[in-house]
Amino acid sequence: MSRAVEESNRAMLRARDAMDRAYAQPLDVPALARIAHVSEAHFIRTFRATFGETPHRYLQRRRVERAMYLLVQTDRDVTDVCYAVGFGSLGTFSRTFKQIVGESPTEYRRRRAPSVAVPSCFTKAWTRPSSFG
Amino acid sequence: MTMNAISRSQIYVLDQDQALDFYVGKLGLEVNTDQDLGFMRWLTVNLPGDPEREILLEKPGPPALDPATAEQVRELLTKGALGGYLFMTTDDAHKTYEDLVGKGVEITDEPMERPYGIDFGIRDPFGNRIRIGQMFPRG
């Protein structure tokens, strides 16, 4: 009865893990749907029902989180950071970053200091900017 | 008097045979105890050479949990939200990583050098997270 839900959850988690691991690569919905073994339309709908946001939004926020990390922990320039986390253009990166974080990458970098090192999966889980409030 | 060791920890698994395939067959842990107690299968594993620290691989279900609660546990586990998390150490993170990739283990985080060591993340077949690290000496 609930077996189908468990299998679906696990498949969605596998696709989400792929985003967390391979955010720097040009991941798209067809590729992620293949990882989850479902159709594209089904994937978007089911991912959202499982995790509360669309796969696109999850990936964007993962990429922005990684960018926030690189901006604070390294001295790589903004363009470099943009491509390193998987954005295809500087314009999209800057716009998305500002939309999500509320300030530009450069402003963000200026205000932050490096933080204590904890296992990166926790950093990634807790600092991915959220739309959940 | 204070406590002196963490001797056993528990995680939930959906299937104990599949858990053995993964934890023993792929990760290389050893079976510590595998006993049918009648009311449950008591299944624990440990790292080779470290039998004082066991991990209980417990299957959620009645009568310990009512069926509806067990279903919630399974659903949270499979979406990675139950919180089961093991941290293990190794002498060579890159080598262990290559070994596990070769065995088809799901990687969640590639090996990365951090201030505390070199570590990477994997996921068990059910949704639990495991982090494996080659730690730098502390202090």
TrEMBL record, chain B:
It comes from the Bacteria. InterPro entries: Glyas_Bleomycin-R_OHBP_Dase (IPR029068), Glyas_Fos-R_dOase_dom (IPR004360), VOC_core (IPR037523). Residues 5-135 form the VOC domain. PROSITE patterns: VOC. It comes from Micromonospora endolithica. PANTHER family: GLYOXALASE/BLEOMYCIN RESISTANCE PROTEIN/DIOXYGENASE, GLYOXALASE_BLEOMYCIN RESISTANCE PROTEIN_DIOXYGENASE. This is VOC family protein.
